[in-house]
Amino acid sequence: PYFFDEDKSYSERVVQNDEGYIMESYLPGMNKKNLNVEIDDSILSIVGKYESKNDVMSDMSYTYSKKYKVPIDVDQSQISADIKDGILRIKFPYSEIKKKKKRVVSL
User: What are phi and psi of 78, to 5 degrees?
Assistant: First the structure.
């Protein structure tokens, strides 16, 4: 969906289903210890730093920092995140208002 950042420097995918949105970001080397996910005033921030120190020739480090506007139809108190094998998965469940089914109004 359009509300996610268009910068594709890291691989990201967003899907929408009956329960809400799911965003997956491929962040090689990242784990729970070096990644921080926060929500403040409808802005989701993801910040991480990866450092690899194998030997002098293969030292590597990078930082990741992105901010996203959380959609209005999402229940911010229920957003959850997990990271496994370098894939960050964030679930954005719909608010109860969005989940309500369409109904016919009698005239």
Answer: -110, 5
Find how far residue 105's CA is from the centre of its chain: 37
Instruction: Provide the β-strand partners of residue 46.
Output: 37, 66
Would you write out the chain's pLDDT as a tens digit for each of its 107 residues?
Answer: 434 444 544 578 899 998 999 999 988 888 999 999 999 989 999 999 888 777 666 677 778 899 999 998 999 999 999 999 989 999 999 998 766 666 788 88
84 phi and psi, to 5 degrees?
-145, 130
Q: Contact, 26 vs 10, CB < 8 A?
A: yes
- Residue position matching structure tokens 């139809």: 73
90, 45 Cβ separation under 8 angstroms: no
- Which residue has tokens 């009956």? 18
Helix H or strand E segment including 22: strand 20-26
**Cβ neighbours for 34, distance < 8 A, ≥ 6 positions apart:** 48, 49, 50, 51
pTM for this one? 0.76
